[in-house]
Amino acid sequence: MKLLILSCSTGGGHNTAASAISAYFEKMGVENDIVNALDFLPKARAELISRGHVLAYKYAPKLYGAGYRIGEKIPQTHLYEQNAKGADELCRVLFSGKYDAVISVHVFAAMMMTELRMSREIMIPSFFVATDYTCSPGVSEIDADKYFIPHEKLREEFAQQGIITEKIVASGIPVKAEFCEKTDKGKARRALGMSEEGKVLLLCCGSMGCGPIRSITLRISELLSEDDSLVIICGSNRQLAKELEFIAGDDIRIKICGYTDKMSLYMDAADLIITKAGGLSTTEAVLKRLPILYIDAVPGCESRNIEFMTGNAYALVADTASGMANLVETCLSGAVDAMEMVRRREDDFPFEAAKTIYESVLEEYKRFDEARSREKVEVTAKPARQLPPLEKQMMLIVNPVAGKGEMVRRLSEVTGVFMDAGYRVSYFPTHGKGDARDYVSAYGAGFDMICCSGGDGTLNETVSGMIETGLDIPIGYMPSGSTNDFAEFHNISSDVLIAARHIVDGSERRVDVGRLGGEYFINAADFGAFTWLPYTTPQRLKNKLGFYAYVLDGIRDLSKLQSEHLRIRINGQTIEGEYIFGIVASSSSLAGAMDFFGQTVVADDGLFEVLLLRLPTSPAELQSTIAALSSQELNNELITFCRTDKIELECMKKLNWALDGEKCVGDLHHTVEMLPRRIRIVY
Q1: How far is CA 18 from the centre of its chain?
Q2: Domain that residue 153 falls in
Q3: What is the pTM of this model?
Q4: Rounded to whole angstroms, how far apart are CA atoms 422 and 387?
Q5: Which of 219, 258, 103, 261 lies closest to 169 in space, CA to CA?
Q6: Per-residue pLDDT tens over the stretch 58-107
Q7: Residue 477 near residue 452, CB atoms below 8 Å
Q8: What is the CATH number of the domain that holds 493?
Q9: Residue 484 contacts by C-beta under 8 Å, 6 or more apart in sequence?
Q10: What's the number of domains the chain is made of?
């Protein structure tokens, strides 16, 4: 096996991780090459990415952090498309058959590999190594055979981004072998020409010198005893080194170092490290069993690293020089047992990242090689499949956790169906409530079709975003949620691949949408005693409207029935009374529990089906209502069923609704109105 390791020149950490992986594989007899993924891009674009990252990090950290936070919420489709442009050059490298597997230590490189896997029948194992203690923006958009993450406690975070759990390996972050070994403290100090007495504090500010380094130096110098030492590593930042030398003056307790190849030895000599929150520097300190104090972090991956480390009591952080001085003092005095952080990490942290990665890659490659032998296929990148011109643009919105990740597992198959139909697909995974709505509102106008996969909630948000922005483009729906009433009513297949084929081969139909105030629903809006029951009740009890009879029969005690006093205007009439339940629907299904007494429901007739249930005032009325619900007969004075395009309700207190199963806080006055044939569904 020969390995290609793809790094990216946007910071030293990725290259360090790549070098650590390379060294271990070389040690185990596996040839490998490290290549900068940006070399596959046009030179001007590559320089812009590389230099822009460094400049933003150093001179505009708030802007850098804002961009990072946006990236966490919004899919990096633009970045994906830009980096995917390097896939053709990368493909030429893989065409040679020179490499048998690829490891990416940067998301940009992984995006290139993903593009090859999506658009070409590339027969080569691909792996991704995360180098920060978080799931960075863009990871949800890549496809790999294994994802190597820094810590087991991050597994759920990666899974929430749509990564299949079985593909996640909590390997740790790979660092140079010298950091995996611990030299005796006294021996390390002698090798560095330092006193074996007192405490040694190691301050690593990096070449960028971010944070209040000068103030921290002054503050800590005031805390040092005669035998203590403060070693400051400035890297290649010569200007910072000169300034700190001026501050230190003739204080022999303070040692200023520029670039050094003895960082491992300095860590062995130290009792405490004060450092920036890089993923690699953090891991090095962890492996050296050093108490870690973090200084001012650049918003983004550094702040996420701090959140993880401090949130698990693995490290401490201070935002100011005085705060850092206080932390140092409490650690030196013993007021805080700094070594407790180290002991806690001993039990939790993986300590052999490179070895774990090697073993997992080798296992995956052997499995692939065996399959190749059976099938007699070549381990090369094949030419791009013959696709029609991708002249149409599709937005694909996916809830990655719906249906236990079924859509994510079949994403390449589904995307292939759409590409064969001439669509260029942009992938938008959701991470929380409102994401689908925001995606459509922000980007929907640039697409010829919007497809979504999830439950009714995902479809509702997609539709809401379209209506709010005035869009009128086709919608494709691939149901994968726990409740799929819309799909059930419209006979849309629950197999996402079949649903995808029906989207490209099927016909378009306009359907009605309901509006309650500023919110929308595609199935039903309901209120009252039974609002949430269909979504929490086992399917075996959902026997059409007999389900509600069952529930009502179980109450029996009239005093336990909660009602709302309502004045209702519908079809030119006003009715008033105590109501325990109401539903306004354009579908015959509510979590599988509704059939509207066998009435035919039409999705594009511009009319709602309305059911209102009054409060029984006597045991006889209760029994009569139960009988009517059970038999699905309309001849009961407490049950109102009708069709209308508008209903108005006034109540004594705020009335809460459920719209397509999602809570909606109501008001004292409600107007539910029909938007006839408002959306275009293709199936």
Answers
A1: 25
A2: 2-172+353-374
A3: 0.58
A4: 7
A5: 103
A6: 555 666 566 666 666 655 555 656 666 777 778 777 766 678 899 999 99
A7: yes
A8: 3.40.50.10330
A9: 455, 456, 492, 494
A10: 4
